[in-house]
From TrEMBL:
Residue ranges occupied by any Prephenate/arogenate dehydrogenase domain in the UniProt entry: 14-268
Keywords per UniProt: Coiled coil, Oxidoreductase
Any one GO molecular-function label of the UniProt entry: NAD+ binding
Coiled-coil regions, chain positions: 238-265
Protein name listed in UniProt: Arogenate dehydrogenase 1, chloroplastic
Top-level taxon: Eukaryota
GO biological process: tyrosine biosynthetic process
Length: 268
């Protein structure tokens, strides 16, 4: 793991094809367009009007999308729908080697899928912008962008894509997919799990909130903004997450046992 800048290679304007144009893709697209990159998009939902407003060419037809000679194909689908998306993509329509980039919240899983389905001559860059529309609404400066150069031959295209985030002031973190998932299981997955538990408890602000409780309410509210598919994807497709769930359950049992022992001591 290293905090670094992209390797020296001249930056260039990229033709970026976005697969899946939900909220996160729209969030990224606005900065990419502002930087001068040319975007095309395709998605199961018809975003043609929104794309027209943003100056993005929208393709309902996957064949035409892949024939558009993108430098980069950016995968912004949900974690759970990734295999289905690639099964429906006519990759033989690609006219030349292309850089495939994913921005999913787990990393080993999309890396393995991309390496399995893509021809050997296609480059693979796995990334995770550790921010979103809320945390990045006032700019990306000092927000973390994780990336792993899984299979790169065209350094100019790869570096130009990475520089999209570097030029915005992101904290650039080069890390293996495995290391990312191991750390994310403890940080991101545990955070989402606690938030979901608080949601099930239906906690609400009170008239006597402490700052700590305010933070818990905010955690709950931020967590439930994300879909349950995202949360389940963090569990199902991160091989380190099950152990963290078991650790969380064990820790709860230990704390409960200590409280019960203390209560029994008071009774004696």
């Amino acid at each position: 793991m290293s905090v670094s800048s992209s390797r020296s290679a001249p930056s260039r304007i990229l033709r970026i094809g976005v697969v899946g144009f939900g909220n996160f893709a729209q969030f990224l697209a606005k900065t990419m367009i502002r930087q001068g990159h040319v975007l095309r998009a395709t998605s199961r939902t018809d975003y043609s009007e929104l794309c027209a407003h943003l100056g993005i060419l929208f393709f309902r037809d996957a064949d035409r999308f892949l024939e558009a000679e993108n430098d980069v194909v950016l995968i912004c689908t949900s974690i759970l729908s990734l295999p289905e998306v690639f099964q429906s993509m006519p990759l033989h329509r690609l006219k030349r080697p292309t850089l495939f980039v994913d921005v999913l919240s787990v990393k080993e899983y999309p890396r393995n899928v991309l390496l399995q389905v893509l021809p050997e001559e296609f480059d693979v860059l796995c990334t995770h912008p550790m921010f979103g529309p809320e945390s990045g609404k006032n700019g990306w400066k000092d927000l973390t962008f994780m990336y792993d150069r899984v299979r790169i031959r065209d350094e100019t295209i790869c570096s130009s894509f990475i520089q999209i985030f570097e030029s915005e002031g992101c904290r650039m973190l080069e890390m293996s997919c495995e290391e990312h998932d191991k750390e994310a299981a403890r940080s991101q997955f545990v955070t989402h799990t606690i938030g979901r538990i608080l949601s099930e408890m239906e906690i609400q602000s009170t008239s006597i909130n402490t700052e700590g409780f305010e933070a818990l309410v905010q955690l709950k509210e931020n967590t439930v903004k994300d879909s349950f598919d995202l949360f389940s994807g963090l569990f199902v497709h991160n091989r380190f997450a099950q152990q963290e769930l078991e650790n969380l359950e064990l820790a709860f049992k230990k704390v409960k046992q200590k409280l019960l022992e203390k209560m029994n001591e008071e009774k004696d």
